Amino acid sequence: MTTSDQQSASKESTLLPLSDAVQHALAVTKRGVDELLIESEFAQKLARSEKTGVPLRIKLGLDPTAPDLHLGHTVVLNKMRQLQDLGHTVIFLIGDFTSMIGDPSGRNATRPPLTREQIEANAQTYFKQASLVLDAAKTEIRYNSEWCDPLGARGMIQLSSKYTVARMMERDDFTKRFKAGTPISVHEFLYPLMQGYDSVALKSDLELGGTDQKFNLLVGRELQKDYGQEPQCILTMPLLEGLDGVEKMSKSKNNYIAITEPANTMFAKVMSISDEMMWKYYDLLSFCSIEQIAAFRKAVAEGQNPRDIKVALAQEIVARFHDQAAAESALQDFVNRSKGGIPDDIAEVTLSGAPAGIGHLLKQANLCASTSEANRMIDQGGVRIDGTVISDKGLKLEAGTFVLQVGKRKFARVTLTA
Q: Which residues cross the membrane (predicted)?
């Protein structure tokens, strides 16, 4: 037997067995992920944690750029919550130091760094937003300025010596920018190093991120080796498609579900996704167990209406970001609307200028962006007055109070005066 074979056999003999609980935890971890690297290493980390009773340290770093959070942003947070529920320590890392560098990941130009004032203002809202998903009482909150500021110039130079320019240029976005002649600032090379150093400082066992963060997460593994630590495993989560089922969820594409939206709107938007897309939303957004989701799939395959399963998902999401009472109310509102009813919580608008054209009223009531859009909606049969579909684009309304409806979700009670 060669020395290499002997080492391999010795390593295999020291591997911990994977209990049913560890196998379950591994399945929960892998649910909906894009990649888990390296899976065999993480399985051993789980087994060691079970044996010693010491929870794993699981890290997610976010720069406080104050996004308007939507469900797509919560995909990684949901995975953190699943791991938290397995009994591990989740670390919500606010990148107040790295925000001043600017993350170049997935960008074709240098991202302007934030000022200290912007960072401090944004950071105040971050954990509050994250706490809508994470168990705040069991979450470790850290700021990477704790260990990055003390490094100083000498420490930064020493850290920079651990990675070559050639290895940095392996990053896809850097390579594309270099070939295109797009400027790459030297300070951008520091970002992956600083993110990797965060893993050293926190002694991370697992780091989570989006698919565009893979290079940075791998830098953390290499730096931990340099500092004599066991390297972290990395887990990347896929992008969540929006309501159109095609493009990633984005406010600019108007296919998003904001976590601060009214309960009724949130519920209706979840119900609008396709039956097929519903399963991906379950995998990435639901806290239902793997067994529960499998039971849902079996029920649909055996003939149950997928709408019933989608209602359960919509209620779960609304309850998470509002409460259970709001979820129940949203269901009733949805049922009412589906039967042609008028919801209770519609906007009240008072306008003057009777008699007024219907297109002008729809625009003034913020039900349509323009009169031309209002006319298109009338042509498509999407406009109702007090529940009655109208087809006359030249209709003028006299003084009075009316319920105007555009499409399935937009309502306003308009009081028109002379």
A: none
